[in-house]
Amino acid sequence: MTMNVQTVKERANALEGLVVTVYLDTDPRSDQWKIRLKNGLKTLCQQEKNSDVCEQLTARVERQFLEAQRHLKNGAVCFVSTEETIFEVTQVPVGDSFYVQEGAVLEPLLALEKRFPNTGIVVAQRDQLLVIDTVLGEPIEEIRYEFDVDTDEWVRYRGVAYGAIISSSANHRDTFDDRMKERHAIWYRKIAPRIQKRAKEAEWERVYFVGHPELTTQLEELLPHLPEVKTIDVNYGGRPVHEVVEDVLFH
Known about the structure:
The chain is α+β, with helices and mostly antiparallel strands.
């Protein structure tokens, strides 16, 4: 489940007394994070007056990470007080930092939220669009639109991996391309309001238009009121959604 940053901030702000806060990169392809976690926690309580309480909290932090290791992705955030434990996994790296003080330390989380805001990725083809909502670099919703030449309307599908999009219309590619050269501008004007609506619903703060420059330029012109827009000239035909997101956001 994707971390709800606002909920985590509210819960962490409510923690009272001594709190151990840990941000840790946890690349699941290696166990190096275990060594960095142990070393970071080892020295955390040396200057703390309530060292006994601190050591109890750091032991709980380490146990929490080890219990969750099968579910780790690229980063994790942990807040532990005497009364509560908050632990969240993230798709994006968070950097390594360790704190012990009265109350939780939220600055790294706020910086992460600013670096990876709610982002929409629109993968464009002449007759198909894939719209991906991402939160903290993780895809949380996929919507595919395919233009039906018989009804002259866009048809919406949810939860279809992008690899299936190319094959779904491959049998009609030659005929479809000829017709599309004349009509795709009209078709894009029809889909633009839906993209604008989705951007508002998902609270996009950044948008990537991906595909042939002819298509991404049209989208930019039809959607001038979107927030920060970037374009990428790449063909992701046949690629699964998680690879598209990783390539767009992290490369």
